[in-house]
Design a protein that fits this description.
globular, about 170 residues, 4 helices, 9 strands
């Protein structure tokens, strides 16, 4: 998988000895630009908002990295895992954030799902990813993204490509 980069300065250090085991899926677009799904413009919009994600996947499925994986991207905010047996807070500490360029009216594309599956498989080579959640799952009072996301489709595609027992959605 070819991954480009558009580095940001919107990140912090992860806590020592943290086990990165969660992927958080987001959707976003640039609300003030005619080219609202341009990865570069969306990254600069995130910068202006003081937030970040480790990866951005554009409408064609192109993946760009904006934060090194050993650093903590600022994507989850005040958050808590949604499971009865996992209610850890501060999800940024132990997660990797992925922004899909989509909107409430234009859901993620097939190319984006394919790239998300491929990226997840790649990340699982180096990290013990156990859960894939949406922003809405970890911050339900504040967030509703990823909008119109098909969790069943992601689960089906991942099961075909990635061995193991992953929690996907809630």
């Amino acid at each position: 998988m070819k991954i480009g980069n558009i580095w940001t300065d919107q990140y912090g250090d992860r806590p020592e000895n943290v086990n990165v085991d969660t992927l958080v899926v987001h959707t976003m677009y640039h609300p003030e630009d005619n080219d609202c799904f341009c990865a570069v413009k969306c990254k600069f919009w995130l910068d202006q908002c003081g937030v970040s994600a480790h990866y951005i996947i554009d409408r064609k499925g192109t993946v760009v990295q904006t934060v090194a994986l050993d650093k903590m991207a600022w994507h989850a905010g005040e958050s808590q895992m949604p499971y009865a047996d996992d209610q850890r807070t501060r999800v940024n500490d132990f997660s990797i954030g992925v922004e899909l360029l989509a909107s409430e009216d234009e859901p993620a594309t097939e190319e984006q799902y394919k790239s998300l599956v491929e990226l997840t498989s790649l990340l699982m080579d180096d990290y013990d990813i156990a859960s894939i959640v949406g922003h809405q799952h970890i911050a339900p009072a504040r967030k509703s993204d990823p909008w119109n996301f098909d969790w069943a489709k992601l689960k089906s595609q991942l099961e075909a490509e990635v061995p193991g027992d992953l929690r996907i959605g809630v």
